[in-house]
Input
Amino acid sequence: MGLATAGLTAAGLTVAATADITGVYVTRYTVTATQFDGTVVTVNVQDLYLSSNDAADSVLNIYNFNLGPEAQVDFYQSQTAPTWSPGNLGGPFDTEATRRADSFVTIGGFEQGVLYPEQSPGSGNGIGLDPNFGGENTDYPGMDAGWYNGSPPSLAGQVGDVALPGPDGAPSGFGLGVLIGRFAYQGDFSLDGSSLETTWNQGLGTPGQQLAFTVVPAPGALALLGLVGLVGTRRRQ
Output
């Protein structure tokens, strides 16, 4: 029994045994980086991931995303990528702050097999925001926000080896999953209590499945808990 399924059972809820996206979790660390104008910024970073138990899974979207009460802050955006869609323009605009400290949402599309993914030019291309998000320049995603892979044939949301949190929450080791966002702030914050729903399938022409998850605090362990099982056949964008 997976961690998400075990959590659901303990809560008196049920989930289909065939569910492949199994939970949501964060890794936590601090970044000090140089900005475009030469100044230095220090931010606390939380990378948001979905976990999976099937390498064929490809995430299509996130919807009904709601930040926990300690995450409704003015998140940091780099000077050369001031939008929630990934936007490293390359050349002189390819700064350390954009690569390592910028806040964004995504559906995969970043290098896998690394503990600290960098927003290199082209990473996360094709991401779209739904109207509830609040726009590219909002301080933080609005109530019931969503984002999606605007080009499903690209399979940008294909799961692979991504960072897992160690005992202190910092990236340590790898598991199967996909990066769906980076949140950075010049102060303390927590994504604990944030909730979302997601749709995934296993490639073009395969049925979509949906589940809802929340980020739960679990010091020293992988924090995974599925809230509601909504296995379906529709794909939502």
In short: Helices lie at 3-10, 96-100. The chain has one domain: 3-230. The chain has two helices and eleven strands. Confidence is low (pLDDT under 50) at residues 1-17, 220-237.
